[in-house]
Amino acid sequence: METINPDMEGKVKNAVRKARRASLAVLAVLAAAVLGGGSFYNIEEQEQAVLTTFGAASAVTEPGLHFKLPLIQRVQKVNTTIQGFALGYDQADNESREEDSLMITNDYNFVNVDFFIEYKVADPVKAVYASQDPVLILKNISKSCVRTVIGSYDVDSVLTTGKNEIQASIRNMIVAKLEEHDVGLQVVNVTIQDSEPPTKEVMEAFKAVETAKQGKETAINNANKYRNEKLPGAEAEIDRIMQEAEAQKTQRVNEANAEVARFNAMYEEYVKNPQVTRQRMFYEAMEDVLPGLKVVIDGTDQTNTILPLDSFTGGREEVPVSGTEAAAGITAGTSAGSGGRAGVSAETENSGEGGEEAGYEEDGQ
């Protein structure tokens, strides 16, 4: 028979109780550590969190320390800083990837165009749960929009002047597509990193075209500069000529008006006494004509004799003439000297006292 030692049995029972208590204490400490560590989470300044409770998701946007129910609520942190990806080249080695960069333009030319797309998370809940890979969706949308826009422009616009407009058009198209897919991402900026022809020969040709365009712009600017320098002087010269013309016009009009007034006054006097006025006009004409003639009128005989000191025509010798021949000579000499035509007739008449009377007529042109 076995003998039972009551003291030994009591010691065993006490040891078992102590072991159980120690185990429970260790388990309690471990449980408290686990539950306490999983009940708090921290959100950084450039982060947002998605808190899921029994499948219902909500966004936590405030940075700092937050509490969650352990084993019930789950937290997923989302980076909300601006991020980006390359399209058409590899960011690691900066090498071109023609499967994404080679495109065709509206005028059927090929170009290599590299883009950099910048985006950020606008809605963390949708970015986590609306799709499996929202960034991949954004990349595919960007490729489609880039090719669509590049295909609507000619090669010159893609390579030179139309880059800003192309970037804006691509961004607007991507934004519209993202609103349709609603994956929680927002496009911030679209930038053309580089655009060039696919081969060196074509590249050199485009460079030559660009150089020619710059030369054209330079020539136009120089022409505009020359025009701006000369135009004020030309306008000033035009104003001077116009003013002189107006002054001459006014002067001639005034002179003509004065001549008309003088002629009208003379005509009024002529109507009153035609014979006197005719003789006075003849004498005034002779005062203008005769001083230019070098002749001597010899009236000693009954017939007046005109002795020209110079030739009337400049080509014949000086000979004495008289009568109607003298009248013809005076006519020719007067025409040559004064630009007019004058006729002189000499006539001798016997009066009661034996005197002589001469009559003259003047026909001015």
The biggest beta sheet reads: 4 strands, antiparallel
Cα radius of gyration in angstroms: 60 Å
Q: What overall form do the CA principal axes indicate?
A: rod-shaped
CATH architecture of the largest domain: 2-Layer Sandwich
Number of strands: 12
Poorly predicted sequence stretches spanning 5 or more consecutive residues: 315-365
Helix content: 40-55%
N-to-C CA distance: 186 Å
Q: Which strand-content bin applies to the residues? A: 15-25%
Instruction: Average the pLDDT over all residues and give the rounded result.
Output: 76
Quickly name the level 1 CATH class of the largest domain.
Alpha Beta
CATH topology of the largest domain: Tetrahydropterin Synthase, Chain A
Tell me the number of helical segments per DSSP (H or I, 4 or more residues long). Answer: 9
- Broad structural category: alpha+beta
Counted up, domains total 4
- H-E string: HEEEEEEHEEHHHHEHHEEEH
Q: So, the CATH homologous superfamily of the largest domain?
A: Band 7 domain
Q: What does this protein structure show overall?
A:
- The chain has 365 residues and is an alpha+beta fold.
- It has four domains: 62 residues, no CATH class; 117 residues, Tetrahydropterin Synthase, Chain A, CATH 3.30.479.30; 74 residues; 60 residues, no CATH class.
- It is 52% helix and 19% strand.
- The protein contains nine helices and twelve strands.
- The strands form four sheets. Strands 6, 7, 8 and 9 form a four-stranded antiparallel sheet that branches. Strands 3-2-5 form a three-stranded antiparallel sheet. Strands 10-11-12 form a three-stranded antiparallel sheet, covered by helices on one side.
- A hairpin with a 5-residue loop joins strand 7 and strand 8.
- Helix 4 crosses helix 6 and helix 7 packs across helix 8.
- The protein is rod-shaped, with a radius of gyration of 60 Å.
